Amino acid sequence: MLRRLRLILEMIRFEHTIFALPFALIGMMLAEQHTGATLTAHTIIWILAAMVGARSAAMSFNRLADAKLDATNPRTKTRHIPSGLLSVAQVSAFLLASILLFEIAAWQLNTLCLLLSPVALFIVLGYSYTKRFTSLCHLFLGLGTGIAPIGAWVAVTGRLSAIALLLGLVVLLWIGGFDIIYALQDYDHDVATRTMHSLPKRIGKGPALWVSRAMHVCMLVVLVVIGLLAQLHSTYFIGVAIAGSLIVWEQSLVKPDDLRRVNLAFFTLNGWISVCLFVFVLLDRYVHL
């Protein structure tokens, strides 16, 4: 059982929860700060549970949906289902358990979270099939991840707001932008097989990278707008500036004909970006520069 659990956590790359989790915590903190809502330990615990459940469900469903396609791609044929390390039944059981955890968490939070939970699941699970028919699949991945700060805001306040939606837009632009970079690795395979869609395949590697850069610039602009609307202090804007510097570094690592440092750009720097923003939002509450 422990070995299977370890394999499942490897399959869903559990450590990469760090991409979306800091933004959920940012949504939670800004909701409390901006609206005066009371943040309790019960709410924090179930927000974390909802995050784990939703992301685990999304990743396991994606692996199930893509199992046959992964087996034909040299980059992905060693993944857990194609290689036989995990069975379809085992991953399906984990998927159902993850969905159950997410629904229980939504029920524990508030009525609006519970009512919106099927919509959230439809989006985060549905992304797996968008790659079959649209080159805008990167935006759907961003949308699915962007639910995290919106959901956290609703969990704290019981309602939606413009700031929450803008936080979701930030994540959509950020995730969508770096997913375009990640898709460069499968460019040759996608063009050869014609079974999957991506922006690099549709418009070429170079133009796709420029779209990614434009999305990340827009992300930074929206972060500034959020700071102004929420009346945050200079500490927050310093964090945005540092995150912007990391994004510039990330973009500089990847060239259309040089993908050797994609993993550094995708996995390492993106983790730093989200954690950086979370830390400076937290500091902004107590250190006013």
Helix/sheet category: mainly alpha
CATH topology: Tetracycline Repressor, domain 2
- Binned, the helix content reads over 70%
Largest sheet: none
Quickly count the domains: 1
Tell me, rounded to a whole number, the average pLDDT.
89
The top level CATH class name: Mainly Alpha
**Distance, first to last CA:** 51 Å
Named at the architecture level, the CATH assignment is: Orthogonal Bundle
Order of helices and strands: HHHHHHHHHHHHH
Ordered list of secondary-structure elements with their pairings:
Layout: H1 2-11, H2 21-35, H3 41-65, H4 67-70, H5 88-109, H6 111-130, H7 137-157, H8 162-183, H9 187-193, H10 199-203, H11 205-229, H12 234-252, H13 262-286
Helix pairs in contact: 2-7, 2-13, 3-5, 3-6, 3-7, 5-6, 6-7, 7-8, 8-11, 8-13, 11-12, 12-13
Features of the shown structure:
globular; 13 helices; 289 residues; Tetracycline Repressor, domain 2; mainly alpha
What does this structure look like?
With 289 residues, the chain is an all-alpha fold. It has a single domain, classed as UbiA prenyltransferase (Tetracycline Repressor, domain 2), CATH 1.10.357.140. Helix content is 76%, strand content 0%. It has helices spanning 2-11, 21-35, 41-65, 67-70, 88-109, 111-130, 137-157, 162-183, 187-193, 199-203, 205-229, 234-252, 262-286. Helix 2 runs parallel beside helix 7, helix 3 (41-65) runs parallel beside helix 6 (111-130) and helix 3 packs antiparallel against helix 7 (137-157). It starts with a helix and ends with a helix. The mean pLDDT is 89.
